[in-house]
Amino acid sequence: MQWWCSASGEPWTWAPQYYPGVWLSVAVLAVAYHALARRARSLGESRRAVWGGWAGIILTWQVLDWPIGPLAAGYLASAHAVQFVVLALVAPPLLLLATRRALSAWHARGGAGRRVITRVTQPIIAAVLFNIAAVSTHVPAVVDRLMPTQLGAFVVDAAWFVGGLLLWWPILVDAPRRAWFSEPVKMLYLFLSTLVHTGIAMVMLVRDFPMYGIYELAPPWPAWSPIEDQHLAGGVMELAGAAVIFGIISVMFFRWSGGVSGDPPPPAPPRD
Amino acid sequence: MPPQKLPIALAAACLMAACSPPAPRHGVAVEPALARPDFTLTDTRGAPYAFARETQGLLTFLFFGYTHCPDICPVHVANVAAVLRKLPFEDQRKTRFVFVTLDPARDSLPHLRRWLDQFDASFVGLRGDADDVNRIMAGIGMPPAILGTPNADGSYEVAHSAAVLVFTPDDSARVLYPFGTRQLDWADDIPRLLQVRPSGAR
Known about the structure:
The complex is a heterodimer. By secondary structure, chain A is mainly α. Chain A has helices at residues 20-42, 47-64, 68-74, 77-108, 114-120, 123-136, 140-146, 150-172, 183-193, 195-206, 213-216, 226-257. In chain A, helix 1 (20-42) runs antiparallel to helix 2 (47-64), helix 3 (68-74) crosses helix 4 and helix 6 (123-136) runs antiparallel to helix 8. Chain B has one domain (21-194): 3-Layer(aba) Sandwich (Glutaredoxin), CATH 3.40.30.10. Helix content of chain B is 34%, strand content 23%. Chain B has helices at 6-19, 51-55, 72-85, 89-92, 109-117, 130-139, 183-194, and strands spanning 28-35, 40-43, 48-50, 59-65, 95-101, 124-127, 146-147, 158-159, 164-167, 172-177. In chain B, strand 9 and strand 10 form a beta hairpin. Chain B starts with 5 loop residues before the first helix and ends in an 8-residue tail after the last helix. The interface between A and B is medium-sized, with 15 and 15 residues.
């Protein structure tokens, strides 16, 4: 039994596989989220946002566990692209939207790790770190080296998720508050920060030959060839990524132009 | 070397470089080079196929595998097919892919044809007696196929060499490509291999 999905080189089977490492990671994430979400609810966060966070947890679990997890690890680049979109672009904003009040309150109280968070969520640093994670985990030599090992595959998944949290934090959490990081600047930040991943998707779309050995040499997937799979992966990254990013930029724009701030109100003082 | 001989040496080197085709960059060198083997098996139309005669002067990919192979055979064949499809039509006409089944019990001729057609309808499928095929493989330095123990459902695997042996137009093989050869590697080498002149050509 594997603890994390990795490329096995074995022919694909629909017999379910069990990945205790995925369950444990998702359980830890769910417990941490539950605690933060309860705190956020006490600070006035909407029930809808909290349910959105749970949707983020479930999506994270679904893309890491069987069948998407092992498909992404060793059979289909397109499944890997779905994983990227969910882990970096969908789940983190859902989780941060639900917990932003609790995180802001925690930051205002000067909790442990505050200095590190302040530093790594500085927008330029966050954008750079996200792009380092996105680019380095799409370099063919790196992917082909990491994905056959469980630790390597875990590192890739974790890099996307942590990179996603860093990318979205400055937009959604707003702690520490930065006066210069206004709504128009946030929109520009989101657009510019995700240009590189769009570039990666374009490369995958236009290449004539498969880029990744693990998918090209994987036991065949009956529905499509490795190059079709790669093009599909590029399309997923490009279209799904663009839908998320431009969808959020659109919401931000209309809220801003309508005079509605997307930031949460300052946290209320603790009740006890 | 005396300086007055340097231009002569340079000219000789240039001439040799111009005459010799570019060497393949990938695969594993076969030394000494193998001559194109002369054997006859049955093709998917049920007709005898004399390998040496039918493929003479063509860039020929010879692969021994079986259609129930779950991983290596379909990937290898698909990768060669993907690259050959991208060649100019004239170059495609100078190539042959010949697949010899190591599992004649399950690979009937129609089944073999259907399986190859998934990759390329021009691929040649050959079938023969297992002993004959093993003898052909031994003649080109490949280990014999070994049938695995049948599973409960009667299926079994066949252990076999995973290399594609490539005969150039001069009717010799100097390189073989093990499993793991990428499409990019094939795309890099096939044009080089096509430049080898047929034996007897000037």
